Amino acid sequence: MPSLLTPGALITLAVLALSVVLFISGWLAPEVTGLLAVGLLMATGVLKPAEALEGFGSPALLTLIGLFALAAGLFRSGGLDRLRGLIGSDAVRSPRRMILLLSAVVAPVSAFVPNTPIVASLLPVVEGWCHRRRISPSKVLLPLSFATVLGGTLTLLGSSVNLLASEVSNKLGYGAFGLFSFTGIGLGVWLGGSLGMVLLADRFLPDRGSNDDDLVGSFSRSGYLTEVQIPRGSELVGQSLHGSRLQRRFDVDVLELHRGQERFLPPLADRRLMLGDRLVLRCTRDDLLRLQQEHTVVLAPTPEEEPALDPADPQNGQRMVEVLLPAGSTLTGDCLRDLRFRQRYNATVLALRRGNAVLRERLGQAVLREGDVLLLQGPKDAIRGLQANNDLVVLEQLEDDLPTVSRKRVAIAIAVLAILLPGLKLLPLVAAVLLGTVAMVATGCLRPGELQRAIRLDVILLLGSLASFSVALEKTGLAEILAASLLGSLRNWPLYWALVAVFLFTTLLTEVMSNAATVAMLIPVAAKLAVGLGIPPMAGIFTVLFGASQSFLSPVGYQTNLMVFGPGRYRFLDVARYGFPLTLMMSLLVPWLVLLQFGL
Fold first, then answer.
1. Kind plus residue range of the DSSP H or E element containing 278
2. DSSP state for residue 258 in the 8-state scheme
3. What letters, b where the CB count within 10 A reaches 16 and e where it falls short, cover 503-535?
4. What residues contact 422, with CB distance under 8 A and at least 6 apart?
5. Are 37 and 446 in contact, with CB atoms under 8 Å apart?
6. Inter-residue contact 350 to 297 (CB < 8 Å)
């Protein structure tokens, strides 16, 4: 066993430390951090290019690409419409029953379909159910995310992290996972987690208001921020705010006035208004529409855009809907003005909500983030177009726009065969998934353009680059040194409690950085630690895998948690309050299930 750190080990340790800092701080996107680490490991000679880039050609990565396509084909063809109908059924009459249904139905589907598109598809359905039942979405949306997390550990296909862990394990010489290698553990996690979610729901899930208090509803009553412009012919031209009927007759607060490059803040009551002035208003939806009808104000275009069509008749094909920026959206990091949002989507942003707060900056300058909820107004055709867009999720079920069902049975048959054939050992998993992808396109379940949009490039880049972490840890002996250090601390512990410690450390690390990065960094160490403890290496690997997958403590720990954070109007501690008992339960349950699986 190496007793001293070699130069290669020191370099690897420095690169890992830098990566951890970047993952936690968010200064760089996770996939960019991964690429940086690969580049540094090659540039310093720790890894040869073939070793560092091996992950980009791995069967696991190609399998994941195929899974994205199969999932897209199922959703586009209406293959999962029955699931949507079941979740949105009026036969479900309470949050507790909804959580039970989500646990029983959504989790098993998540065992074979990536959880991000599942949550994106079911969000508007669950929101619609909440609206009809006058139930707060905060009572059911977090369990929707957690259900997909629980289901993601039932099979190898349930999560991209599972595929990465299998690839890392294979590269280290411990063997790849089979389709159902850890299903026995996953079943216990699913049943125990589901029971916990149901029992904890009433006491630990907050009530953030009924669905009548969503962005559209609250815009109608309490008001949200929007930016308007004074057009030619407006009665406001030449008047002061105090002398106009803008605040006397309407429930409107003027928060800012922009004239050219000048910005004026309250008090504004005596300042005379001019043609072309821009006002940042807090007003209700009804008042805004009345002001537009009377041509008192118009929605302000961003500087690079042409003015929007005058929406004097809000019922003339116009809809007002909420949309969510999901994890991986290419719009993240840009502001509405730079995106030329109105031209790109033919829809106007009326308001923006981040978590439980409404941004007070000018909308055109607001930098978008994952989990943001935008209130849009646009023609029905434009809203329909948004439903096919991977960068935005429409949080409203449009019954007239459900996917075509002409290829539904074909898509389901292709997906079932892609899972069944590898399960029966008739085809390798990667071959079955790739052939299924081709079949989806050939049969018209998925168009070539939709296939390209379905593939999450950020995930592919991240997983492809992270495989180099494990190779470097093993090659430089750093994994053995770290495992020996841990073994010295855990040697006298009972085996069960040693695995509990490994699980807890993995879970806490996952909450502050990418779960894929956690798996890539810890599997080599956990495998050698397991050998030192006298148990099979796969026992340590499975403990790390489940610890990285059971993310219940923060909205940023898992992408689906972030997706429901805004629509549920959660606060940061809401997730921790509901997720802490589940994390504690899993910390005690998973090590016991791992030992049971290996007969220890």
1. strand 278-283
2. E
3. bbbbbebbbebbbbbbbbbbbbbbbbbbbbbeb
4. 179, 428, 429, 432
5. no
6. no
- Residue 399 burial class via C-beta count within 10 angstroms: exposed 0-12, middle 13-18, buried 19 and up: exposed
Average model confidence (pLDDT) across the chain: 79
**Spatial CA neighbour of 469 closest among 65, 46, 27, 161:** 46
* Phi and psi at residue 321, to the nearest 5°: -135, 160
Cα torsion 221, 227, 232, 238: sign? positive
Q: Kindly state the DSSP code that residue 276 receives in the 8-state scheme.
A: T
pLDDT, tens only, 502-557: 899 888 888 777 778 888 888 888 888 888 888 899 999 999 999 988 878 877 66
* Alpha-helix runs per DSSP H in 314-456: 336-339, 341-345, 380-387, 408-423, 429-442, 448-454
Please tell me the chain's helix, strand, coil percentages from 3-state DSSP, rounded to the nearest 5: 60, 10, 35
CB 231 within 8 A of CB 225: no
| Residue 29 DSSP one-character state | -
Both tokens of 454, joined, read 């379905």
| Residue 256 reports pLDDT greater than 50 | yes
Architecture of the 215-394 domain:
2-Layer Sandwich (3.30)
Q: For residue 80, which of 103, 107, 101, 109 has the smallest C-alpha distance?
A: 109
Q: Report the interhelical angle of 515-532 vs 537-549 (nearest 10°).
A: 150
Token pair, residue 503, equals 């699980």
Identify whether the C-beta of residue 463 lies closer than 8 Å to the C-beta of residue 31: no
Per-residue model confidence as pLDDT tens digits over 222-234:
455 677 888 888 8
Q: Which two tokens stand for residue 349?
A: 């942003």
Sheet strands side by side (includes 373-379)? 357-358, 348-354, 373-379, 318-324, 393-394
Q: Which residues, 6+ apart, have CB-to-CB distance to 226 below 8 Å?
A: 280, 281, 283, 288, 299, 350, 351, 363
pLDDT of 248 above 60: no
How many Å apart are CA 469 and CA 15, to the nearest integer? 9
> pLDDT tens, 276-317?
888 877 776 666 777 777 778 887 765 444 444 343 344 445
Phi and psi at residue 550, in whole multiples of 5°?
-90, 75
Question: Can you tell me the distance from the alpha carbon of 381 to that of 94, in angstroms, rounded to the nearest whole number?
Answer: 34
Four-CA torsion 284, 286, 288, 292, nearest 10 degrees: 180
Distance CA 255, CA 269 (A): 11
Cβ(297)–Cβ(245) below 8 Å:
no
Report domain extents, the chain: 62-161+173-209+405-443, 215-394
pLDDT: is 335 or 245 the higher one? 335
- Residue in the block written with tokens 């928060």: 255
How does pLDDT run across 582-597, given as a tens digit for each residue? 999 999 999 999 999 9
Percent of the chain at pLDDT > 70 equals 85
Report the alpha-carbon distance of residue 588 to residue 77 in Å, rounded. Answer: 41
Element (H, E) at 541: helix 537-549
**Assigned token pair, 303:** 């500087």
Pairing type for strands 252-259 and 278-283 reads antiparallel
Quote the pLDDT of residue 557: 64
Amino acid code (one letter) for 281: L
Return the HEC string of 21-66: HHHHHCCCCHHHHHHHHHHHHHHCCCCCHHHHCHHHHCHHHHHHHH
